[in-house]
Write a structure and sequence with these properties.
Blueprint lengths: L5 E2 L12 H14 L12 E4 L4 H14 L5 E7 L8 E3 L4 E4 L2 E5 L1 H10 L4 E2 L2 H4 L8 H7 L4 E7 L4 H18 L4 E5 L4 E3 L1 H16 L3 H10 L7 H13 L5 E8 L1 H4 L5 E9 L1
Parallel strand pairs: 1-5, 2-9, 3-8, 3-9, 4-7, 6-8
Antiparallel strand pairs: 2-12, 4-8, 5-6, 10-12, 11-12
Helix pairs in contact: 1-2, 3-6, 6-9, 7-8, 8-9
Length: 275
């Protein structure tokens, strides 16, 4: 029998600690220190969480995942920073190793998505060196030890395939009648001043909070907002609205300047929950 695919960590020791106990303590601190940890956790259809090095984005990611009930099934959408592989790339078999343990791919859920949306193609190359999905897993795993997931990397900036993926996600999730969380991994505007970044980011955030996937796509592409995961966010919003989402909540916003003190060139981070 063929052996299952094992995807090894690409950025452990760089974006987050490689040592299991150090990583566990760091992620637990982001989760427990979040203001949202003091609130009752909620069931959600989707969320947006950042994916930078933990020293910068960890507090925002922790705030998002502390706010949520994490089900055992997650679809994890991320951008393709490396340019490798296919533009709509899924892995549907095997597991991803993390310092906190392995996370199994939900083969049945991935198979249903590929059947419903054949443009989604099997491709591990797009995921091998990509960090944007990997950095979310320690947070998800600490909140849900029985986690299974479907990783999808998006290298397209066209609206139609993002819309079609969102519709497919909604149809498959609705048919399965079980809780599935759609996580869109995304940072916000990149490498402009703190003041400019906050203005641009809140234009995009306004569209997300309005549950407007087309509006988000238009504002990002027309107003030069370098939100790297706008594709995952558009697809997640499309799916969530089709599944009956009623509201979105900005859990936390920050920029890298809040940590570094450098306000001349920053990256924005938004943590948003959609339900």
């Amino acid at each position: 029998m063929p052996t299952s695919t094992i995807r090894h960590p690409a950025v452990a020791g760089r974006f987050y600690p490689r040592e299991p106990e150090i990583l566990r303590k760091e992620v637990a601190s982001y989760l427990s220190h979040a203001e949202s940890a003091k609130q009752e956790s909620i069931r959600a259809l989707g969320c947006i969480a950042p994916h930078a090095g933990y020293m910068y984005s960890g507090p925002v990611a922790g705030a998002v995942f502390a706010r949520l009930q994490i089900p055992t099934r997650v679809v994890l959408l991320c951008p393709n920073h490396t340019g490798m592989g296919r533009p709509l790339a899924v892995m549907s078999d095997g597991e991803w190793e993390t310092p906190l343990g392995s996370v199994r791919i939900n083969t049945a859920l991935a198979g249903s998505l590929k059947q419903r949306f054949p443009a989604l193609q099997e491709d591990s190359a797009a995921h091998r060196a990509e960090h944007a999905a990997e950095v979310e897993l320690p947070f998800l795993l600490l909140r849900q030890p029985q986690l299974t997931f479907v990783p999808i990397a998006l290298g397209t900036g066209q609206f139609e395939p993002l819309q079609q993926l969102g519709e497919a996600l909604a149809d498959v999730i609705a048919a399965r009648k079980e809780d599935v969380l759609i996580v869109a991994s995304s940072d916000m505007n990149h490498y402009e001043s703190d003041a400019v970044t906050r203005v641009k980011d809140h234009r995009a955030i306004e569209r997300i909070l309005s549950l407007d996937p087309r509006g988000l796509y238009d504002v990002v592409t027309q107003q030069d907002i370098s939100m790297c995961g706008f594709g995952p966010a558009v697809a997640m919003l499309m799916a969530a609205t089709r599944l009956g989402a009623k509201s979105a909540e900005l859990v936390k916003y920050a920029t890298s300047g809040d940590v570094s003190g450098d306000r001349d060139m920053v990256v924005g981070y938004a943590g948003i929950v959609v339900r």
